[in-house]
Structures are given as structure tokens and as C-alpha cells.
């Protein structure tokens, strides 16, 4: 069973992600800030991380993504940014930091589930 880590400071968004993905397909861990998210990533070595960019803690999502993607244990971990930051520069910064996908809030739960499934199966979705 694939392990997914959600790093998101808003509880209602974490719940929506949970509902979108379903509990039976994945083992899901949650963190409400970047610091605890990084600690959980180190502890559980998830296959995929869904995270916000702007959140409490010492590091933002870009910094966490960059840090993880530069560690051998996380080079193949898929990272999806799920954020309200919708400017083109924000997206470029996200991809430069190493994310695999970038979704803007509000997001489609169906699209999120499809992207997660495709990333974990090693296939790319065609939009």
C-alpha cells in the first residue's frame, strides 16, 4: 500500500484531500506545518507528498521540496504542491524546487485523485 503524506495547515483542506483519495487505497499521514511534515517524511518515507507552499514553520513548501529532492531517500518521492499561489512565477518556482505536479486551490477532488494515481503508477496524465 502506498504511503502519502499531507502537509497542510488547514484542517478542512486535509479532510477534503482524505475524502478525495479514500482511506482504503493509501496509508495517509498528516502534518499541519512544515516542520512536523519534514519530521514525518523522514520517519515514514512516503511515496508521495501533497503540500501547501505557505504554511507555519521554519520552512515553506518550496524549501521543503528542495531539501527532500536533494536527499537520496527522497529522490523518487513524488511531490504535489496544492496551493492558492496561482501566479506563473509561483508555478515556475514550484517546478524548480522539484515538485512533480502543481495544483491550484480550489482544486477538483477527482483531478487530484487521478494525478495521485498516475504519479504512483509511474504514468503521466495528459491534460
Automatic annotation (TrEMBL):
<dbReference type="Pfam" id="PF00072">
    <property type="entry name" value="Response_reg"/>
</dbReference>
<dbReference type="InterPro" id="IPR001789">
    <property type="entry name" value="Sig_transdc_resp-reg_receiver"/>
</dbReference>
<keyword id="KW-0597">Phosphoprotein</keyword>
<dbReference type="InterPro" id="IPR050595">
    <property type="entry name" value="Bact_response_regulator"/>
</dbReference>
<dbReference type="InterPro" id="IPR011006">
    <property type="entry name" value="CheY-like_superfamily"/>
</dbReference>
<feature type="domain" description="Response regulatory">
    <location>
        <begin position="3"/>
        <end position="120"/>
    </location>
</feature>
<feature type="modified residue" description="4-aspartylphosphate">
    <location>
        <position position="52"/>
    </location>
</feature>
<protein>
    <submittedName>
        <fullName>Response regulator transcription factor</fullName>
    </submittedName>
</protein>
